[in-house]
Amino acid sequence: MEREVGAVVRYRNHRTVRRWCRSVVMKIISYNIRGLGSCVKRREILNIVKEKKPDIMCIQESKMECMDEGLGKVLLGSSEVGFSFKPSAGASGGIITLWNSNTVEVVHSASFDHVLIIHGARLVNSDVSRCVCGDFNSIRSEEERKGRGGRVVNFSPFNSFIEDAALSDLPLCGRRFTWYRGDGVSMSRLDRFLLSEVWCQNWPNCLQIALPRGLSDHCPIVLSVDEENWGPKPFHMLRSWSDMPRYKEFVIEKWRSFNVYGWGGFVLKEKLKLLKGSLKEWHLNHGRNIEGRIKETKDRIHDLDVKGEGVGLNEEESEELRVLSSQLLSLSSLNCRNQWQKSRLVWLKDGDANSKFFHGVVSSRRRGNAIHNLVAKGHQSPNNDRPGIDNLQFQSLSSSEAYELEKPFTEEEVKQSVWDCESFKSLGPDGVNFGFVKDFWPEIKGDFMRFMLEFYSNGKLVRGSNSTFIVLIPKISNPQCHSDFCPISLVGCLYKVLAKVLANRLRSVIGKVISETQSTFVKGRQILDGILIANELVDDAKRNKKEMILFKVDFEKAYDSVDWSYLEARSEAGGSFISPFLFLLAAEGLNVMLKTSVNAELFKGYMIGDVPASQICISHLQFADDTLIVGEKSWANIRAIKALLILFELVSGLKVNFHKSMLVGVNVDDNWLFDASYVVNCKIGRIPFIYLGLPIGGNPRRHSLWIPLLEKIRKRLSGWKSRFLSMGGRLVLLKSVLSSLSVYFLSFFKAPAGIIRSIESLFKSFLWGGSEDIRKINWVKWDKVCLDRDGGGLGVRRIREFNLSLLGKWSWRLLTDKDGLWFKVLVAKYGMTDGRISGGGRQASLWWKDLCDVRDGVGLSIGRWFENNISRKVGNGEETLFWKDRWLEGGSLSIHFNRLFELAIDKNITVADMYRRGWVVGGNGWRWRRHLFAWEEDLVLECCVVLENLFLQVDVLECCVYHLLTHLVPIMMTAHKDVIWNKVAPLKVSLFAWRLLNNRLPSKDNLTRRGMHLEDSALCLGGCGVAETIDHLIIGCEMSSSLWIKILNWLGTFGPLPNVVTDHVSQFCNILPVGRGAD
């Protein structure tokens, strides 16, 4: 059976649309030839056709005013040729479309202004597929062009065209650009194929390839649809199997029946291998072709329904209908689970179960992850004669800490490691996921523990237990060579459990051997720590007119180029050779080299702070392999950076990409910076620059800093506009994906009000099915949407409050993480006042000012929200201020006994010092600036009464505790929340009920009230002559009221129907148990 497919070819002010018949293997070529009058150009077209053998050839800018069949046969190299032609306008334009008549069936064509449309045969009940291709003379982003720059391009019209037409932009293989000026400088991606959603579903393995450029300044591009044979697909355990009858019994029975002898690792590996074969056979009989079984079940139900409408069903057929209905629900659930696992959509837990959406996601992932060609470069073998690290002083573990790493494995430890892992992610060659291990842990734990203990005793793995899939993840949109991919290892289940156990052990001691400049893989350290330090350093240099340089290091293939001999020596220096975090230990070598250079005054870092006691020197920051070297401006530092990186490269095997690394200067002359970059052979950067995904040195109050975040949200939305999502699916996407996109930015910067409005505007438009260009009615106020479900809303995050809460975490860390490098930097820059970091005044950075405002509640209606909800739990009292901290119920003593606080000599005395001096009446802790009056002495007695039963715990450290910082604003609709958000009902049904009870459905009166002009009258469509309101449509109309009466009779309840929807819901809430019982 053949399916109708549509194709559109569009180029400069011209567009060709064609719909044609499907073939098993199909190719389309689009080429802007820049004139087809010469024999040389025609010969080039013929050579391309002979080599690629396309079904359709689309030629733009033929610059020909006439066309005949003979020329078409010459160009396509076949007598079976069909063509459509649009003449050029003088010496510009001209479209020629050729197709092979044996494979393409064309019904008719039509020509419009700059448009040539060709229609193919259409099958019954088939959707139209469209393919748009050609020279668009437009690009989608700045990444799609390269040149001298200077010209500002508006990408919105072209992107809006693609989004509004619901088209998908395929990745380009072969090269990044398709048009070249010829000077080797200017180039762009002007030519492309754009496919409709239906096309992608019919041919999910489409790819477009840019061919080598010939006589034209454009490259021919080929759209190829073919079944690529990659060999047998790897075995995957499906999540849906656990819902199938007798699955668990089958696995347990098979596992017990396997008799394998040998080492524990061999036994476990072979049992899993045998079980894999058995499950494949079981799946063929029970889990294959679920969609076909669903269709057969539906057809049988349809036949029984038709028979029931006529002669009726007998008892056997009635029972069969009941069983088929239950079977259909079960099969549909299994199919939904399978599609969920294939699409990798973790967020979709209670959204749409729409197979079209899932198929679209699967197809998109395949296109994005497909590798069609790689540019191979020469490989140079590394030099194994490397310098040693004997003279470097690494931190090491104590003997007790080393024992904790090397003690025997326990069953509880192994089980905890398994349960910490995601159940259905990243299957290795064995196809076994952790969900399977968790489900059958009682049966297989004995084999697992034998494998783990034998590895502990022998230190060896059985051959094949560490087999690995190497997966290349594209780092850019159009990857061409191996450096454009990130290699990921998918190991088998056995090796993954072992690595997880070792990682959990190492996590407890890794901070002892890793310096404070490294902010990854260490408990208590965060990626934002390095961003904070870098921003504060740049701000300090700017305000104090200091000259500073920053060198952003780029390592090539960081995780797979470390030399093993260096790792062995490094691990011995660390005290143990068990570590899944090998690269972290390797990167520590650079830290030791830089610190040694600073101590030897070979490299001068950046000194921050004016008080000598708190000054701190920062020479570098690290997050895994993301390294930022910081220092004063000097040629000595430039030479030291180059020498240290080359030395580290020789020692560790990590290759530094100097040409991709970047040198940034603060208050540094451009000429000096250019000379320095020439010496280092690196790029020159400007403030602000990106480090760890956030801008360094930027102004968060400017709109330009937030443009990348807005574009990221828009880009994600553009990929979903053509998806088949209900409001329930859009709500899940909004709450789980879209809201999380902004978390990283909002965790560090305080968003301006205008940015918050822009983000929430995008969210509102997406929720109600609109876009930036297409406005739709926002039926419910955003303030109400952002309330939680108990308060009558949908639980969507408010950006402003979410931003404040994320910044509040910094205020919390200021109290609990005083040993971090980031805290020391802030103390050095701003100093301490009353036990906390000072505000800094006019010398404070914008980030620190915003954080202090959030901490102190400046500009907030709720006042000092953070301080009023934080108290200290006193242990030994060494770090708690007696007067100023809130360590007693009801607030600080400086507030309750303000008069005594003003008279006290030592206002910063700690609780421990006060306790040691004596806080009883007459104790030495009470020291005043003058003699107290009688009423003031009464205050002292009152304070002593508060303190008399308090005792300090010498061996207990103090900590901070926080109270609930949120509150709910209940509204009337919360009375029906249990009915609306019933777990049995699909989310889109619950949302309909939510809108119904809020009177926010598009009835005629609601549309009129919102300014919509209705062409027909405002009366009910049922013909009852009453104005169409929600209450009337749902209850009052004759059609709906008769239906409700039948439902009440079915439930065994009689009585009049209320006239208001809310009263009607309340009535049903009272009889709901009767309804459930009837069900």
TrEMBL record:
Location of the Reverse transcriptase domain: 482-567
InterPro entries reported for this sequence: AP_endonuclease_F1_BS, Endo/exonu/phosph_ase_sf, Endo/exonuclease/phosphatase, RT_dom, RVT-Znf
Superkingdom of origin: Eukaryota
Domain Reverse transcriptase zinc-binding, first and last residues per copy: 976-1044
Keyword Kinase: yes
GO molecular function: DNA binding; endonuclease activity; kinase activity
GO biological process, one term: DNA repair
Annotated PROSITE patterns: AP_NUCLEASE_F1_1
Short name of any one Pfam family annotated for the protein: Exo_endo_phos
Keywords, ordered alphabetically: Kinase, Receptor, Transferase
Domain Endonuclease/exonuclease/phosphatase, residue spans: 29-218
Protein name per UniProt: Cysteine-rich receptor-like protein kinase
